[in-house]
Amino acid sequence: MRSELFSAENLEKESAQPGMRLQNSKMLKVELNGEVMARVGSMVAYQGQVQFQALGSGGLGKFLKQKLTGEGVPLMKVSGRGDVFLADFAKDVHVIDLEPGDALSINGSSVLAFDSTLQYDIRMVGGAGMASSSGLFNCVFSGYGRIAITTKGTPVVLSVDAPTYVDPQAAVCWSANLQTGYHRAEQLSLGTLLGRSTGEAFTMSFAGQGFVVVQPSEEPPVMGSGSQEQQGGLLGGLLS
Q1: Do residues 171 and 165 lie in contact, with contact meaning Cβ atoms separated by under 8 Å?
Q2: Which residues contact 22 (CB under 8 A, 6 or more apart)?
Q3: Span of 3-7, 112-116, 187-191, 228-232 with lowest mean pLDDT
Q4: Mean pLDDT for the stretch of residues 221-229
Q5: Residue 72: what pLDDT?
Q6: How many CA atoms lie within 13 A of 52 on its CB side?
Q7: Chain centre to alpha carbon of residue 95
Q8: How far is CA 114 from the centre of its chain?
Q9: Lowest-confidence region among 7-16, 24-33, 156-165, 209-218
Q10: Which range among 84-98, 136-150, 216-230 shows the weakest confidence by mean pLDDT?
Q11: CA-to-CA distance for 83 and 91, rounded, in angstroms?
């Protein structure tokens, strides 16, 4: 049997080392010898002795935060020995190595999988979401290990060494040490009062030293289970 389908670039990629790596730009391969955390429903194939266990958002505290904020990652624990292939609606997949001292703030919708050695929490994004109706909360990852994220299209990585502004629904992730806020991009005018809009009323602002990953597509606004004022009050004790 002959076909371009069976070319070398489409064959399964083998490695002697366990862990996650790209099978191709749209698919992650995890050579499993232990466990890894993955987005619920992201498995497209596996080989070997592998078990899947639903974990919600990863613990009671994170479950409550997810319910109150609309943010978080619906997780499953993947354990055993074998090869597991993960994908998310043919989005581009990128693998990031975190080292001790690193911290990455990322939209929960962009998380595909991560090593169980990493820690994460759901935290409020300072000043960004109130005026833009985008998500008020992000997942912050830290520790040592690998995380696989997804983007809709090929992203650009902006170095933040000057004031930087990004559409909040196109910002995928950024250095957690950056200071965030909001900036009115659209000038008030008679046209604005008459209902005309550029569609760019507010942008997220970033300051400090670090980077921002921006995708060429806008995620829909994240809506929580209550008003933003209610969310802020209910989360006062959880986000300390």
Answers
A1: no
A2: 28, 29, 93, 95
A3: 228-232
A4: 43
A5: 57
A6: 19
A7: 12
A8: 11
A9: 7-16
A10: 216-230
A11: 20
Would you place residue 183 in the very low, low, confident or very high pLDDT band (cuts 50, 70, 90)? low
Q: How far is CA 232 from CA 58, 138, 225, in A?
A: 21, 14, 12
Classify the phi-psi angles of 153: left when phi > 0, otherwise alpha if psi is within -120 to 50, otherwise beta: left
**Cα(118)–Cα(135) distance, rounded to whole angstroms?**
23
First CA to last CA across the chain, in angstroms? 61
Name the residue with tokens 């969310």. 231
CA 137 centroid distance within chain = 11
Residue 90 to residue 168: CA distance in whole angstroms: 22
Helix, coil or strand: residue 81:
strand
Q: Is 149 left (phi over 0), alpha (psi -120 to 50) or beta?
A: beta
Determine the length of the chain. 240
Query: Hey, is 200 helix, strand or coil?
Result: coil
Structure tokens at 43: 């498995």
Find, among 121, 136, 101, 131, the residue nearest to 59 by Cα: 121
- Residue 177, both tokens: 């040490």
What is the maximum alpha-carbon separation in the chain?
A: 68
Three-state secondary-structure class, residue 108: helix
The whole-angstrom separation of Cα 23 and Cα 37 is 18
